[in-house]
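Work package 3, deliverable 3.1, input record:
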Amino acid sequence: MACFLVPATEAVVTTIITKVVEAREKKAGVEHVSEAELKEVKTPFSKKMKWLNGLLWGGSVLLAFEHLWHGEITPFFPFLTAMADPAETADMLHEMATSGVAMAAVVTLVWGGVVIVSGVLEKRAAAEKEAEETQ
Amino acid sequence: MTLLITILAAVAATVIWYSGEKARKLHVGMLVCMFWGASLMWLVDAVVEFAEIRAEYFTPAPADMLNDAFLGFSVIALALVIWIVTVLIRDPNGVFKKRLKKN
């Protein structure tokens, strides 16, 4: 019905947070490098936030297309067909509160896992580099 | 069916992204994020549907399967269009910049 609106809203919030974090990192002199150079440098947190933004925006856009496909979104006001009938609106809100929130939570949890794994890999790479330098 | 097709697209995009610097320069990472994001969201949808209808979930009507497959391929086409437009706008190889300088 409109479950994709929850991850889309989260995407708006995380995009704003990313911009703030990026500005702070630039102020603090954190090195922003290209993907090719990232192998030897610690990935800035703003870059990791961009992974989450990509997952949320990408997923929301493709799900919005699915809703358009099923005739749940219209190009005219109120844009959601479920908004025309109060009973359907209640169902839509229920779906947003259950499926929508679960979607946003699952995407965020998976991203959290990826961030943890990348942190471990970075630490391992740094330790290997240090060991090479001491030899 | 849509979920399956999107997961296959996500795996293919990840393999392409992982296998070459050229692919990473061409923002294949964007496709990876789009497909995995949509796959995770549809996975939640599938779990919710399975909780409601149980085993019936695995025996869809042929017409529904065909429609879902059509939707899955359309989703891939949409993602590819978004990706190619982004690549052309960002112009990572500087093709347009070089052409504009020539003129």
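Chain A touches chain B at residues 3-4, 7, 35-36, 51, 54-63, 65-66, 69, 98-99, 102-103, 106-107, 110 (CB under 8 Å).
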